[in-house]
């Protein structure tokens, strides 16, 4: 069972009959607050063959967009439920059909929906339990105003698989590991990603592949805290990431560029 | 008859493209090359950095209205987005958003010649692109966000998603727009999936003419400075779309439902299917 499904079922319970079957979606309360949980999981019967292994493809992108927009439309100006993205995505599918049919737009649709929800005041929380790779993570997780991750060897945040990066940059896997020692952003482990300041919390000591009941309770508690924190500060943008102490240390250039732009903007 | 002189847009550098687009005499660069705000991450990997990190931020006017142009230089690291170049784009869009919130709209134009995230800066590029996406979705409710994909690099990866979020996309025939580049698909899925050397096939799949014909881009123009400058101004005149393309969920779900994934589909066949689905391309 994929980690995405494991955590979805642990937090929400098993569901059946989703269409398409690769996108799990259900509402459940967490910490007394309403939340919609979303996960992308493998579906061996998926319509597009290259997206059968849990990749975030055409159907997954547009379906996430529909499910998120449904919640925004239903809640209107009332009590806005939280959106929880359970992240275990190996990347986007590499295929001819995908490009022809506008995979970039399907991912944009999911990003548009999550961002629209966040701007409307829905807390958006990402829970990273497995791989968080590239376009798939951009579409499902990176627009959250709070990102929580489990510290576990199977949790990885990167822009391309190590094997593919080696081929594209014409370097060996060993060379890439050496570079990662020096250039933090090229590392695959989630502890290195945490040092870039985009995480709200890194949870240690939880078995991300086969969680115990106690593990699930701890994560539920962390979700409730993240939702309360997002609701409390009222900010609907991503500025918290650059405001973190870690970002001041490891994203100095991102901050310096913004300072200079602000100084020179009006001329 | 002598044909009127034309200046090929794709022969210009990013800085020249930005200047050529703005009203004459209004170009003003922010964080110019003499400030030498370079990527701190390339030298340790044996790569010579560029003094503008491959992105030009220019203020100026379009039809007398205040504007900001973000031009990616495709010749530097394939237009890859790193920490500095990404922060220049995200930061400028965030300032345009602040201006828009105060009622002073600034017209944002993105000149997209980019392979996406610069692999050498990996997760810093990823975070920067997420911030670009966030800023565009917030900004485009105030003012249209216009993207131009002229060539020769094309627009791929996380920046293709950026294009997908834009209000209007202007393309030339030479321009290409897709998530995974043809070479990456061939490398990852094999030559039987896509032969990246087959230029006709590649352009029939992700080229400007195809994208405009199937409604995934808005205007097809010649590789000509005047034509592109006019198309960008027209896009702002058209205003903020009633529903952005990336929000047209019902339409695109219906479009996908009309596809039989077990049948061989190609560019011309898709045009026949999708240029006639009720709302036109």
Summarize the entry for a quick read.
The complex is a heterodimer of chains A (267) and B (281). By secondary structure, chain A is α/β, with parallel strands linked by helices.
SSE topology:
The complex is a heterodimer of chains A (267) and B (281).
Chain A: H1 3-11, E1 23-30, E2 33-40, H2 58-75, E3 82-89, H3 96-100, H4 103-120, E4 124-133, H5 134-139, E5 146-150, E6 156-158, H6 162-169, H7 173-182, H8 190-194, E7 201-203, H9 213-233, H10 239-243, H11 245-250, H12 252-264
Helix pairs in contact in A: 2-4
Chain B: H1 14-21, E1 28-30, E2 55-62, E3 65-72, H2 83-101, E4 107-111, H3 122-139, E5 146-149, H4 158-165, E6 168-172, H5 182-189, H6 199-206, H7 208-213, E7 219-221, H8 225-238, H9 249-257, H10 267-274
Parallel strand pairs in B: 3-4, 4-5, 5-6, 6-7
Antiparallel strand pairs in B: 1-2, 2-3
Helix pairs in contact in B: 2-3, 3-4
Architecture overview:
The complex is a heterodimer of chains A (267) and B (281). By secondary structure, chain A is of the alpha/beta class. Chain A folds into two domains: 3-236, Alpha-Beta Complex (2-enoyl-CoA Hydratase, Chain A, domain 1), CATH 3.90.226; 237-267, no CATH class. Chain A has helices at residues 3-11, 58-75, 96-100, 103-120, 134-139, 162-169, 173-182, 190-194, 213-233, 239-243, 245-250, 252-264, and strands spanning 23-30, 33-40, 82-89, 124-133, 146-150, 156-158, 201-203. In chain A, a hairpin with a 2-residue loop joins β1 (23-30) and β2 (33-40). Chain A is globular, with a radius of gyration of 18 Å. In chain A, 54% of the residues are buried. The mean pLDDT of chain A is 95. Chain B has ten helices and seven strands. Helix content of chain B is 38%, strand content 13%. Chain B has a domain at 9-177 and 217-242: Alpha-Beta Complex (2-enoyl-CoA Hydratase, Chain A, domain 1), CATH 3.90.226.10. Chain B starts with 13 loop residues before the first helix and ends in a 7-residue tail after the last helix. Chain B has helices at residues 14-21, 83-101, 122-139, 158-165, 182-189, 199-206, 208-213, 225-238, 249-257, 267-274, and strands spanning 28-30, 55-62, 65-72, 107-111, 146-149, 168-172, 219-221. The chains are: A alpha/beta (267), B alpha/beta (281). Chains A and B meet through α2, α3, α4, α5 and α6 of A and α2, α3, α4, α5 and α9 of B.
């Amino acid at each position: 069972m994929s980690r995405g499904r494991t955590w979805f079922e642990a937090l929400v319970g098993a569901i059946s009959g989703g269409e398409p079957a690769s996108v799990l979606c259900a509402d459940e309360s967490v910490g007394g607050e309403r939340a919609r949980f979303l996960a992308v999981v493998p579906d061996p019967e998926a319509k597009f063959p290259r997206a059968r292994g849990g990749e975030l493809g055409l159907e997954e992108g547009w379906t996430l967009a529909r499910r998120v927009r449904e919640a925004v439309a239903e809640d209107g100006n009332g009590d806005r439920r939280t959106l929880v993205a359970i992240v275990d995505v190996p990347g986007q599918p590499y295929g001819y059909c995908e490009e022809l049919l506008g995979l970039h737009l399907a991912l944009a649709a999911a990003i548009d929906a999550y961002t629209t929800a966040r701007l409307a005041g829905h807390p958006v929380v990402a829970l990273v339990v497995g791989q968080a790779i590239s376009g798939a993570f951009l579409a499902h997780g990176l627009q959250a105003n709070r990102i929580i991750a489990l510290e576990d060897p199977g949790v990885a945040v990167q822009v391309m698989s190590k094997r593919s990066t080696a081929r594209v940059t014409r370097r060996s896997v060993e060379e890439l590991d050496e570079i990662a020692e020096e250039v933090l952003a090229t590392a695959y482990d989630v502890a290195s990603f945490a040092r870039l300041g985009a995480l709200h919390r890194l949870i240690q000591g939880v078995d991300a592949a086969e969680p115990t009941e106690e593990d699930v309770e701890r994560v539920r508690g962390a979700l409730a805290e993240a939702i309360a924190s997002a609701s409390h500060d009222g900010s609907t943008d991503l500025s918290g990431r650059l405001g973190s102490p870690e970002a001041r240390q490891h994203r100095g250039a991102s901050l310096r560029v913004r300072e200079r732009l602000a100084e020179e903007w009006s001329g | 008859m002598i044909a009127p002189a034309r200046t090929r847009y794709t022969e210009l550098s990013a800085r020249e493209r930005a200047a050529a687009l703005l009203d004459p005499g209004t170009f003003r660069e922010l964080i110019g090359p003499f400030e030498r705000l370079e990527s701190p991450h390339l030298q340790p990997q044996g790569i010579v950095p560029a003094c503008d990190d491959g992105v030009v931020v220019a203020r100026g006017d379009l039809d007398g209205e205040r504007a900001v142009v973000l031009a990616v230089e495709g010749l530097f690291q394939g237009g890859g987005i790193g920490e500095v170049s990404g922060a220049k784009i995200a930061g400028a869009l965030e300032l345009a958003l602040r201006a828009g919130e105060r009622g002073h709209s600034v017209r944002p134009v993105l000149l997209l010649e980019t392979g996406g995230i610069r692999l050498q800066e990996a997760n810093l590029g990823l975070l920067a692109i997420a911030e670009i996406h966030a800023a565009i979705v917030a900004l485009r409710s105030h003012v249209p966000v216009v993207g131009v994909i002229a060539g020769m690099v094309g627009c791929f990866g996380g920046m293709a998603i950026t294009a997908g979020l834009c209000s209007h996309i202007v393309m030339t025939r030479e321009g290409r727009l897709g998530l995974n580049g043809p070479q990456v698909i061939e490398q990852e899925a094999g030559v039987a999936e896509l032969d990246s050397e087959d230029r006709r096939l590649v352009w029939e799949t992700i080229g400007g003419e195809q994208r405009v014909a199937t409604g995934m881009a808005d205007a097809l123009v010649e590789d000509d400075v005047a034509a592109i400058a006019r198309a960008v101004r027209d896009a702002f005149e058209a205003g903020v779309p009633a529903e952005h393309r990336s929000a047209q969920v019902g339409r695109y779900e219906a479009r996908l439902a009309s596809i039989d994934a077990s049948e061989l589909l190609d560019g011309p066949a898709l045009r026949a299917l999708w240029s006639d689905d009720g709302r036109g391309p």
